[in-house]
Amino acid sequence: MSIELSMVSWNCQGAFRKKSNLIAGLKPDIAIIQECESYEKLIADKKFASPNSYLWFGDLSFKGIGIFSYTGYQFEVLDGYDDSLKYCIPIRISGRNHFNLIAVWAGPGQARTERYVRQVYKAVGEYIDFIREDETVIIGDFNANKIFDPKNEEGNYSSLTSKLENEGLISAYHDYFQEEHGCESRSTFYLYRALDHPFHIDYCFIPRKWRQDLRSVSVGSYADWIGSSDHCPIMVEFG
After folding, report:
1. What is the CATH number of the domain that holds 14?
2. Stated pTM of the model
């Protein structure tokens, strides 16, 4: 079965209600938006570009993670969702294509072993049966890069990518551009919104067999997006 799908992940740095047209204009099948207000806050703004379906998770109404479809896709959260890993959310996706997805916003956990990319590493172990039951995408703000890795530490970015590769998942960006992890030429994050502090910390991991349908991968430009967030979106299209 061929894949026809468009996905985008963007950390909007808050106030998504004022920025939603930037994403809705891309007409993605699935959008993962980090630092996003609750849906109740979003729809209270008349200018908000409403999706056709949505999920939202967060402790603070002004800052969580939103999962939206601007086409016909529907979402079902896994019954075994572990809310201690609240920003690594396992979702069954149904629509033109059916697959599993883990939406990611890796942030500072209370324990060092559960901070940032370690959360994602832990979630992969927690949801390994979910990952294996169907083709799975893991997409979002990982807050990580190989260049930040402590040496020989389980749960760092390098050990995560190895673990995912063992499960048949590859980074769409690195496969498409044929770049090595840690050597990315396109940045998804600019510290303090400064052009001279670029990093690549947002990813979309896809089933290896989907690479035959991978049509394009792109990262939004600094000029186009820096006025709205310190992150630029990563966009992936199939079909």
Report:
1. 3.60.10.10
2. 0.97
